[in-house]
């Protein structure tokens, strides 16, 4: 890659208390069943690297990050 990319990561808490993470711009790139949000973040970073590496090996285009997140407060 000729420039650094930063992908949005979504970390969610499951009903069993574990944490999972996924990357909306890289379908199929997930880390599941982690004990803490930090462990999910660490493992999803490794998963992103492996996912992109696999895409490059397979000759597939690596998508540019386009997702973003914002927080809103409800207007009650």
Q: Element order, helices and strands?
A: EEEH
- How many β-strands, per DSSP? 3
- Decide which structural class fits the backbone: alpha+beta
**Rg over C-alpha atoms, rounded to the nearest angstrom:** 14 Å
Counting H and I runs of at least 4 residues, what is the number of helices?
1
Shape: flat
| Share of residues in strands | 15-25%
How is the main sheet built? Answer: 3 strands, antiparallel
Instruction: State the helical fraction.
Output: 25-40%
Overall mean pLDDT stands at: 93
Strand order of the largest sheet: 1-2-3
Spans of at least 5 consecutive residues whose pLDDT stays below 50 are: none
CA(first)-CA(last) distance: 46 Å
Secondary-structure blueprint of this entry?
Layout: E1 10-13, E2 19-22, E3 30-34, H1 37-57
Antiparallel strand pairs: 1-2, 2-3
Tell me briefly what this model is:
With 76 residues, the chain is an alpha+beta fold.
């Amino acid at each position: 890659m000729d420039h650094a990319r930063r992908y949005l990561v979504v970390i969610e808490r499951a009903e069993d208390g574990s944490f999972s993470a996924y990357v909306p711009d890289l379908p199929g790139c997930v880390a599941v069943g982690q004990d803490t949000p930090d462990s999910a973040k660490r493992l999803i970073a490794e998963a992103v690297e492996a996912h992109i590496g696999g895409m490059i090996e397979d000759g597939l285009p690596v998508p540019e990050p386009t997702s973003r997140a914002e927080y809103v407060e409800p207007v009650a």
